Task: structure prediction
Amino acid sequence: MPKKLKILGLFDAMEPAKIDEDLTLLLQGKDRNTERDVLGALVKLGYTTEHLTIFDNLDLVRQKVEAFQPDLIFNLADQFRNNRAFDQNIVSFLALQDLKFTGCGSTGLTLCKCKGISKKILDYHRIHVPDFVIIPRGKRIARPKRLKFPIVVKPLKEEASLGISQASFVETDDQFNDRVQFIHQSYDNDVIAEEYIEGRELYVSILGNQRLQVFPIRELVFKQVPPDEPKMATYKAKWDEEYRKRWGLENQFAEDLDPALVTNIQDKCKEIYRLLTIDGYARIDLRLTPDNKLYFIEANPNPILADDEDFALAAGKAGLSYPQLIERIARQGVKTVRD
Result:
């Protein structure tokens, strides 16, 4: 029988937290489904668990580890001082403390966070990416002539489609300049502007380090969006239930994909996963054109783990119950060697 681990759930907080804070009310929140589901699964599996939220004080982690002596930290903290750019710094701290933790290490998080770097790496290895340009804050806004309309303008380092709306789809230089300026000012973020790829929006979930398991492909479908309108995974398309109902947006398992194409997608996603030095688990977002050309859009290490989200649903389709998935992630975290 494998040893029953002592596991510390590490979460992020929106404001300063205490080491012994009661999280009962916090975990009842609608936006804390992942934390609640993961802790519930760990308890069901018989693990001894405690949890800690951090806002701006990493010394709380040291204190909690000293008191609890966990075998593993189940890392669900993806921001520090409400800044998601610091997720790699959190895991760097854990690695410096020689602590075992779940999910991706700092190098993979850093490469995937900067969408421009990840696309340059993959383009070098002849994986199709949309043509793109990076426009830093404080630089003159100008569209390179090689970048053809229509274009999608979005924040360089945001996640969960923050900063992406229908206004991100631009077809003129005036629209381009206005949207870039808006992102610079409203999100305090550099911009990545990339060619819009017409096609199917596919999500491929992967689990593992050296040996990778690719779960069944999910797809965001746009059932009621007119044919001549752009079909994009905007913030509202992902998170606004009323908006999703109005436009017939649904996440479902991809249908009518030729088996040979599925194999190609799986192999390509494994290659992407390894080239970006991802470990733990991740979701790869792709576009598939009508002529079956595959484009990489972005990689998401440590994607949402709530039991009703794409990653867990894809694992379930592959035969892994939710507790089994959480156990696989935990056991993998214990075995992972961090450089």
